[in-house]
Amino acid sequence: MKKLLCGLLTGWLLLAEPAAAEVRKDVLALREDHPQEYVVVKGDTLWHISGRFLQTPWRWPELWDINSQIDNPHLIYPGDVIQLVWVNGKPKLKLKRGMVKLMPKARVTSLQQAIPAIPLRDIIAFLQENRVLEDDLYTRSPYVLGANNERIIAGAGDRVYARGELLDESPRQTIYRAAGEYYDPETEEFLGYELLKIADVVVADKKADVLTLDVRRSHKEIRILDRVVPTEEERIQSLFHPAPAPEKSEAKVLSVLGGVNDGGQFNVVAFNLGQREGLEPGHVFSIYRRGERIKDPVTRELITLPEERSGLMMVFRSFEKVSYGLVLHSSNVVSVGDSLREP
User: Fold this and answer.
1) Who's near 153: CB < 8 A, 6+ residues apart?
2) What's the pTM?
3) 55 within a domain of the structure (yes/no)
4) Long-range contacts of range 208-211, CB-CB < 8 Å, 24 or more positions apart?
5) What digits encode the pLDDT tens for the residues 216-242?
6) Domain that holds residue 57
7) 141 in any annotated domain
8) How remote is the C-alpha of 239 from its chain's centroid?
């Protein structure tokens, strides 16, 4: 009888455990040292403020729940006082305001901008100047032959010539330079070329397959074999709504952008998942540091140590097979080959 009761109790616990885990997963865990009020200062971000209250700052949309006090959490300004309250047993943030007497008056709008979701200053260059292009598009794009007066280097105000068929008939084109190639570290699939923006040009003439291009603005000197690619028309995204990465997503860091081998907080990384895997700006990943290889002092074997969780990263731009992410928190360096998983 005792064995039967123990068996029933064990079975009940096993059935209840997933449900309990699901409940715990839904609960917003506050930090032990969270404040009751916080005054927004210049340089704050929604991630930074939420991180003062939450153990998991990427879940800030749940904390900034839609309510009459904060109908748009992206419109919070330096000087605002934010207060932690409880609504139906759940923590929420609201703007602390006293009684306001309404009367007609001129509305004055501060020149100070609302605080951003994440520090845009750290990604603005990668939103404007970098992109990943698939192999077939890159190899089909026209290449620079040279500049006027037989020069091999050109810049703003110059005229350059290219050869090939435009991928888009728009007169506005952009000159890019391949900064690297991306391959999947496991399947060895070619994922695309990392392109660096060189200049903005306008098509002045076209004869046969030779293009005449006027350089309107340049970031770097234009060189022979640089590629002419259609200008991206999409708007720069500055608002991000965090969400966990798709279930069972696993990726590897392909590079730390900016010409460095290792990175950390507020560095940008490229990794081997993209739009075809359903990735969108706002998806959050946990970063796991590769286990080091050491020699066993007894057996002399090479042993790979376990991976260690080392930070959080949020996707801010995705291409077909590759995405860019911003490291928002790190307790260790982030390197090529580190793993990314759903948080």
Assistant:
1) 147, 221, 222, 223
2) 0.75
3) yes
4) 209/142, 209/163, 209/164, 209/165, 210/145, 210/161, 210/162, 210/163, 211/142, 211/161, 211/162, 211/163, 211/164, 211/166
5) 999 899 999 999 999 887 666 667 878
6) 37-96+113-117
7) yes
8) 11
